[in-house]
């Protein structure tokens, strides 16, 4: 979860988000190397008085500064395309959950087990909870389990987003979108609607509680 002093990415709670963080670091290092190299060249050009009055063309240097950017783009594109396909991959999900966006709350359906449905509203703030993030009914999910999330909307466009899972799916009226993820460990995970959907857009958070499969089955038996 992001805090006031956190300027970095959130800690990964899924293998997909771990790969996204690795890709971010990989691309950032390439950008730093390019920035340092270009900065060094610009400073060295301004700090010397060397001239070449007979320089009309430089085919070799033009070849170099054409090939190097092409290689750089390849080093960025290959892991990017791999991640793009991984994000759309859904491998035989064990649990399917449906999330329905409303103005301004979420509804959830666990239709795999029984007719389990509930609404999830933001809690009124008290000092013992997370402001604007805690809800009255959390989404309970087991960790180390392949999960498929189906989402749609009953009114306007919403977006079901959990940054620490690397998941962002638009909830559209009259259309089902899906995403797949695996929770890496137990804990609380927070997200929010990421599509402006009206005056209370900021007040429809998402809260997931990741627990063991045994506790998940016990929770199901309570309904």
Automatic annotation (TrEMBL):
GO molecular function terms listed in the Swiss-Prot or TrEMBL record: copper ion binding; cytochrome-c oxidase activity
Query: Catalyzes what?
Result: 4 Fe(II)-[cytochrome c] + O2 + 8 H(+)(in) = 4 Fe(III)-[cytochrome c] + 2 H2O + 4 H(+)(out)
Q: Which cofactor does it need?
A: Cu cation
The membrane-topology field of this record reads:
Multi-pass membrane protein
Q: Does the keyword Amino-acid biosynthesis apply?
A: no
| Record-linked InterPro entries | CcO_II, CcO_II-like_C, CcO_II_C, Copper_CuA, Cupredoxin, Cyt_c_oxidase_su2_TM_dom, Cyt_c_oxidase_su2_TM_sf
Domain (Cytochrome oxidase subunit II transmembrane region profile): give its ranges: 1-91
Where does the chain cross the membrane?
A: 20-43, 63-87
What Gene Ontology cellular component terms go with this record? mitochondrial inner membrane
Sequence ranges assigned to domain Cytochrome oxidase subunit II copper A binding in this UniProt record? 92-222
**GO annotation terms (biological process):** ATP synthesis coupled electron transport
Give its localization. Answer: Mitochondrion inner membrane
For this protein, what does the record note about how its cofactor is bound? Binds a copper A center.
Keywords assigned by UniProt, alphabetized? Copper, Electron transport, Magnesium, Membrane, Metal-binding, Mitochondrion, Mitochondrion inner membrane, Respiratory chain, Translocase, Transmembrane, Transmembrane helix, Transport
| Family the UniProt entry places it in | Belongs to the cytochrome c oxidase subunit 2 family.
This molecule's function is given as: Component of the cytochrome c oxidase, the last enzyme in the mitochondrial electron transport chain which drives oxidative phosphorylation. The respiratory chain contains 3 multisubunit complexes succinate dehydrogenase (complex II, CII), ubiquinol-cytochrome c oxidoreductase (cytochrome b-c1 complex, complex III, CIII) and cytochrome c oxidase (complex IV, CIV), that cooperate to transfer electrons derived from NADH and succinate to molecular oxygen, creating an electrochemical gradient over the inner membrane that drives transmembrane transport and the ATP synthase.
Q: How does it assemble?
A: Component of the cytochrome c oxidase (complex IV, CIV), a multisubunit enzyme composed of a catalytic core of 3 subunits and several supernumerary subunits. The complex exists as a monomer or a dimer and forms supercomplexes (SCs) in the inner mitochondrial membrane with ubiquinol-cytochrome c oxidoreductase (cytochrome b-c1 complex, complex III, CIII).
Q: What is this protein called?
A: Cytochrome c oxidase subunit 2
Give the species this sequence originates from.
Aphrophora alni
Organism lineage string: Eukaryota, Metazoa, Ecdysozoa, Arthropoda, Hexapoda
């Amino acid at each position: 979860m992001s805090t006031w002093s956190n300027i970095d990415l959130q800690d990964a709670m899924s293998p997909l988000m771990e790969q996204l963080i690795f890709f971010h670091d990989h691309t950032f290092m390439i950008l730093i190397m390019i920035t340092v190299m270009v900065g060094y060249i610009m400073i060295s050009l301004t700090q010397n008085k060397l001239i070449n009055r007979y320089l009309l063309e430089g085919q070799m240097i033009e070849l170099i500064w054409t090939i190097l950017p092409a290689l750089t783009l390849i080093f960025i594109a290959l892991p990017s395309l791999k991640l793009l396909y991984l994000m759309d991959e859904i491998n035989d999900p064990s649990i399917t959950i449906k999330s329905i966006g409303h103005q301004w709350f979420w509804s959830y359906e666990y239709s795999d087990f029984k007719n389990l449905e509930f609404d999830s509203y933001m809690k009124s703030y008290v000092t013992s909870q997370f402001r604007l993030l805690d809800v009255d009914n959390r989404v309970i999910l087991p960790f180390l389990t392949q999960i498929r999330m189906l989402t749609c909307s009953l009114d306007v466009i919403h977006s079901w987003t959990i940054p620490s899972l690397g998941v962002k799916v638009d909830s559209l009226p009259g259309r089902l979108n899906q995403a797949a993820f695996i929770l890496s460990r137990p804990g609380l995970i927070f997200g929010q609607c990421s599509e402006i959907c009206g005056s209370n857009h900021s007040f429809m958070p998402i809260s997931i509680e990741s627990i063991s499969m045994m506790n998940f089955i016990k929770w199901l038996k309570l309904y």
